[in-house]
């Protein structure tokens, strides 16, 4: 599902215009990005938790050449699914 599809569905369900809904979605995304950039945890109940983690520097092997490559330390995003969403996804039927 694309962002445009989400906006269309939410606009129909809320009675807001697509432009108003798009502004809300953009605001949500900007707020989440700001919080994650500042290494805050973002928890959306019923969905899950987003958290920034620091990965250590390590060496990996290129499978084609066998050469060792140094991967520098970097930040990445970790997502933990909520138990409610996990239960919902594992229900039988659609």
Explain what this protein looks like in three dimensions.
Strand 3 (58-61) and strand 4 form a beta hairpin. The chain has helices at 3-14, 18-37, 83-89; strands at residues 42-44, 48-55, 58-61, 68-71, 74-81. The chain is elongated, with a radius of gyration of 19 Å. Helix 1 packs across helix 2 (18-37). It is of the alpha+beta class and 94 residues long. It folds into two domains: 1-38; 40-94, HU Protein, Chain A. The two termini are 17 Å apart.
Question: Care to give the gist of this entry?
Answer:
The protein is α+β, with helices and mostly antiparallel strands and 94 residues long.
End-to-end distance, in Å?
A: 17 Å
What's the structural domain tally?
2
CATH topology of the largest domain: HU Protein, Chain A
Percent of sequence in beta strands: 25-35%
CATH class of the largest domain: Few Secondary Structures
Overall morphology: elongated
Largest sheet: 3 strands, antiparallel
Low-confidence spans: none
The ordered string of helix (H) and strand (E) elements is HHEEEEEH
Structural class: alpha+beta
Show the helix and strand layout.
Blueprint: H1 3-14, H2 18-37, E1 42-44, E2 48-55, E3 58-61, E4 68-71, E5 74-81, H3 83-89
Helix pairs in contact: 1-2
What labels would you give this structure?
94 residues; alpha+beta; HU Protein, Chain A; 2 domains; 3-stranded antiparallel sheet; two-stranded antiparallel sheet; 29% strand; elongated
């Amino acid at each position: 599902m694309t962002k445009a599809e989400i906006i269309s569905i939410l606009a129909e369900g809320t009675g807001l215009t697509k432009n108003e809904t798009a502004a809300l979605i953009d605001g949500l995304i900007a707020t989440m990005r700001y919080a994650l950039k500042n290494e805050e945890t973002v928890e959306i109940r019923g969905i899950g938790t987003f958290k920034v983690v620091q990965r250590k520097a390590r060496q990996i092997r290129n499978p084609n050449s066998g050469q060792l490559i140094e991967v520098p330390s970097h930040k990445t995003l970790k997502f933990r699914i909520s138990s409610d969403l996990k239960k919902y996804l594992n229900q039988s039927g659609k």
